Amino acid sequence: MKKNQGILISFEGGEGVGKTVQIKQLADVLKTKGYDVVITREPGGTVISEQIREVILSTKNIGMAFTTEVLLFQAARAQIYRELILPSLKAGKVVLCDRTRDSSVVYQGIVRGFGKKLIEQLNDISTKNTYPNLTILLDVPVEIGLSRRHNCEKVNRLDLEQKDFHEKVRKGYLKLAEKNDHKRWLVIDGSKSIEEVHEEILEKIKANKIFQ
Ligand code: TYD
Hints:
The chain is an alpha/beta fold. It is 55% helix and 13% strand. Thymidine-5'-diphosphate (TYD) binds at residues 15, 19, 42-43, 57, 73, 98-99, 103-104, 107-108, 156, 158.
């Protein structure tokens, strides 16, 4: 890792794939190795972005137009990059982000139908042309993801979508990972145990040599 140049690792996947717990475990390992680690999430991560998150995800807002949704995700993103992610990278930190630009490519670009090209243009504006150094896709069959989600977490507006929506999300991610633009995608079978998934993430990161 070069001085004054941090590393951005994003975690992506559908609902209930277990990103949060894996981010925490990876952060613990990196911290014991002496890295300065920032954990954050999209939409959210700053006071302003968390307020935008409330509006986007509230089940009260089922009438939200898709275009509004696209732009609100980007608004939250523009804020977190300016306020937290870019300054942290500049300070040489490791940023672990629960979702970022690829969520918009899949959910809004592919599934809602706005197209990858338009969404990537917006992503470039919001992130000031920043891509993760590594993107870890936790892939889990939709039934497993949804049942995990419904068992233990607060349901948000997008969770209310039908199974078909979530199937498209899964396929969309696998397609992006297969194309592997910027050579930054790692695909992990997220249906294994938390410990097995954690070990696989560590192994793949090691093989990827991102921290050398
Ligand atoms: P969240 O509760 O954080 O879901 P998860 O635990 O699965 O990450 O809710 C975020 C939701 O917003 C999730 O359904 C994915 C969606 N989303 C988009 O549609 N576009 C985006 O750009 C982002 C960042 C998230």
